[in-house]
Design brief:
heterodimer; A: 222 residues; alpha/beta; ten-stranded mixed beta sheet; three-stranded mixed beta sheet; 5 helices; 13 strands; B: Glutaconate Coenzyme A-transferase; three-stranded antiparallel beta sheet; 3-oxoacid_CoA-transf_A (chain B)
Chain lengths: 222, 221
């Protein structure tokens, strides 16, 4: 029986791949869960596009500072050693290759590492991009966290993205509720699968040809 | 004698002309110069091009400018947010033009204007719809798009403290676009929480030197 990973389990699996001492930007949504599950054995410096390094967790109720917010506009705190800087410097960090890891959500990822995470084909809403394109091209390593399929069961990992691209050939690794996949010259290579997921079952819900690592393993989140 | 202090937000924005390009600081509700924007609303300038990260929410500041038909065009990275109803309504009916710019490119285009540069190439957005109509070159093995500077007539920003020379320090993440916008406009107007005497700000910690600032006004929190 297939047992998809919970969002917290996916976050724990991502956290394992983030080395101690990394400078990391977590995108809005699923990626923010990663900060909650990184163990105390690692010192990770979180970056926020609005000018924060060393961002800490949400403040206790009543302690919110309306001007100290994260990219999702939620109140946050500053850890000892943290710093504030202006927007251009915040994006120099992103665009200039200074961040070690960027963890992003996605609507679609292609087998060549193209990322679509800023616009769908929905014309009723005004477009909005924020810092998505800067993060996708600038970080040294781009990790994507997403469900393997859409709510109505359509694949999000594809031979080619149908939604407008955020950036081309930028994604290094994808973590879904069903698998961990590397993106490289040979397309998607499945490294790990969730408990009960067979290669055939995974291929059936993926829109690109999959290769499976010879040492294919079952995901252990911790 | 240099004294950039003015008495009221109304006085600080009195000469902003119809058709002006206005940079407005802030990220979400952090660092928005609310009182200056409200003074601009009262002042009545129309046909404005507003450059800002978000497109306002609720009924205040930029949302109010849009609601009162003062904004012809908005240049921003993320106009869609909780409560951005006035922008969305005007956008649907074609009553406001939108130029969508990746956030880092928005900031860097203003920096380029402030630094006297003619533009820059960046990989950000080079393979996206936002590069349409722009020059794309392969530089150092990467596709990069040419982006033009974004100069303005006026910048409205918020800082924490200022002296009469216009030296500024900011508070937490409210700093955001302020220091860059201050360099990119012909007239930079700043609202601060508190005026201090010349010499009171630690020169090692001044974030925006007064050369980039034209007017400061104290707005009690």
């Amino acid at each position: 029986m297939i047992r998809p990973l919970s969002p917290a389990d996916v976050a724990r699996r991502v956290a394992r791949d983030i080395p101690d001492g990394s400078y990391v930007n977590l995108g809005i949504g699923l990626p923010t869960l990663v900060a909650d599950v990184v163990g105390p054995d690692k010192e990770i410096v979180y970056h926020s596009e609005n000018g924060i390094l060393g961002m800490g967790p949400a403040p206790a109720p009543g302690q919110e500072d309306p001007e100290l917010i994260n990219a999702g506009k939620q109140p946050v705190t500053l850890l000892p050693g943290g710093s504030f800087f202006h927007h251009t410097d915040a994006f120099v960090m992103m665009r200039g290759g200074h961040l070690d890891v960027s963890v992003l959500g996605a609507f679609q990822v292609s087998e060549t590492g193209d990322l679509a995470n800023w616009a769908t084909d929905e014309a009723a809403l005004p477009p909005a991009v924020g810092g998505a394109m800067d993060l996708a091209v600038g970080a040294r390593r781009v990790l994507v966290v997403t469900t393997h399929t859409t709510r109505d069961g359509r694949p999000k990992l594809l031979s080619r993205c149908s939604y407008p691209l955020t950036a081309a050939a930028v994604v290094d690794r994808v973590y879904t509720d069903l698998a961990v996949l590397d993106v490289g010259p040979e397309g998607f290579v499945v490294r790990e699968v969730a408990p009960g997921v067979t290669p055939d079952a995974l291929q059936a819900v993926t829109g690109a040809a999959l290769r499976f690592a010879p040492d294919l393993a079952v995901v252990h989140p911790d | 004698m240099i004294d950039k202090r003015v008495a009221t937000p109304a006085e600080a924005v009195a000469d902003i002309a119809d058709g002006a390009t206005v940079l407005v600081g802030g990220f979400g509700n952090s660092g928005v110069p609310v009182e200056l924007v409200h003074a601009l609303l009262e002042q009545g300038a129309r046909d404005l091009t507003v450059v800002t990260n978000n497109a306002g929410s609720g009924e205040t500041d930029i949302a109010a400018l849009i609601r009162e038909h003062r904004v012809r065009r908005i240049i921003c990275s993320y106009p869609r947010s909780a409560g951005s109803v006035w922008f969305e309504q005007f956008w649907r009916t074609g009553d406001i033009e939108l130029e969508l710019v990746p956030q880092g490119t928005l900031s860097e285009r203003m920096r380029a204007a402030g630094a006297g540069l003619g533009g820059f190439f960046t990989p950000t957005g080079a393979d996206s719809l936002l590069a349409e109509g722009k020059e794309v070159r392969v530089l150092d093995g990467r596709r990069q798009v040419f982006e033009r500077p974004l100069p303005a007539d006026v910048a409205l920003i918020k800082a924490d403290r200022a002296d009469r020379w216009g030296n500024l320090v900011y508070r937490t993440a409210a700093r955001n676009f302020g220091p860059t916008m201050a360099t990119a406009a012909a007239l930079t107007v700043v609202q601060v929480r508190q005026f201090v005497e010349l010499g009171e700000l630690d020169p090692e910690a001044v974030v925006t030197p007064g050369i980039f600032v034209d007017r400061v006004v104290e707005v009690a929190p």
